[in-house]
Design brief:
The structure holds 2 protein chains of 2 kinds.
Chain A (H helix, E strand, L loop, with lengths): L3 E4 L2 E4 L5 E7 L5 E7 L5 E8 L2 E5 L6 E7 L2 E6 L8 E8 L11 E2 L3 E5 L1
Parallel strand pairs in A: 2-11
Antiparallel strand pairs in A: 1-3, 3-8, 4-5, 4-9, 5-6, 7-8, 9-10, 9-11
Chain B lengths: L4 E3 L2 E5 L4 E6 L7 E6 L6 E6 L5 E4 L2 E5 L5 E6 L8 E8 L8 E3 L3 E6 L1
Parallel strand pairs in B: 2-11
Antiparallel strand pairs in B: 1-3, 3-8, 4-5, 4-9, 6-7, 7-8, 9-10, 9-11
């Protein structure tokens, strides 16, 4: 069974369009994330949700709007797509443990978004 | 902002060679993680180091956390083509308990048969 899944795997679209990426995790985790990986492979966090509540909101244009209908799902909607949005977007999840130094994050396979 | 700098950025070697990847910061981290990402896949956790000076081994991979917890290294002995991939170090981005990670810029390793 796939732990963290994303759809679609590839997304090619025109500038100005609106698109969504879906993410689901079946690990029972309470925290989910969206990351953007640019062409140089740099991985940067965009958003984090804990139990459906937005926890981390990095400096991301407000054209990007995450939505978490339940703690197993975190979707990403992007309005008015721009050329610079082309990247690979990864969803991840983890189980928050307040007493721990760290949380292992489990990543989905990524969605390669190409804006033409 | 806590930054992690990885070196080298690219590494191309022959099968059987040894290599070391470095992850450095001017900040102290409570822990550091190493992930490996294969083409077309998401990163997968290899190891987490928590204690200064800690050494962990995973088959031919040896991970070390610096005594001052500001740096870490990944050493691969007798590299195999299957080790090819992007190696990322990551650490908690200071002061938050919600799992926010700061990633290094990654090291792209290619092992030629």
């Amino acid at each position: 069974d796939t732990a963290v899944s994303q759809t679609p795997k590839y997304l090619v679209t025109q500038m100005g369009n609106d698109k969504s990426i879906k993410c689901e995790q079946n690990l029972g985790h309470d925290t989910m994330y969206w990351y953007k990986q640019d062409s140089k492979k740099f991985l940067k966090i965009m958003f984090s949700y804990n139990n459906k509540e937005l926890i981390i909101n990095e400096t991301v244009p407000n054209r990007f709007s995450p939505k978490s209908p339940d703690k197993a799902h975190l979707n990403l909607h992007i309005n008015s797509l721009e050329l610079g949005d082309s990247a690979v977007y990864f969803c991840a999840s983890s189980q928050e443990r307040l007493a721990a130094h760290y949380n292992e994050q489990f990543f989905g396979p990524g969605t390669r978004l190409t804006v033409l | 902002t806590q930054l992690l700098e990885q070196s080298p950025q690219f590494l191309s070697i022959q099968e059987g060679e040894n290599l070391t990847v470095y992850c450095n910061s001017s900040s102290v981290f409570s822990s550091l993680q190493w992930y490996r990402q294969e083409p077309g896949e998401g990163p997968v956790l290899l190891v987490t180091v928590v204690t200064g000076g800690e050494v962990k081994k995973l088959k031919r991979l040896t991970f070390q956390f610096g005594d001052a917890r500001k740096d870490s290294s990944l050493h691969i002995t007798a590299a195999q083509p299957g080790d090819t991939g992007l190696y990322l170090c990551a650490g908690p981005a200071g002061g938050t308990s919600y799992g926010k990670l700061t990633f290094g810029q990654g090291t792209i390793l290619t092992v030629h048969p």
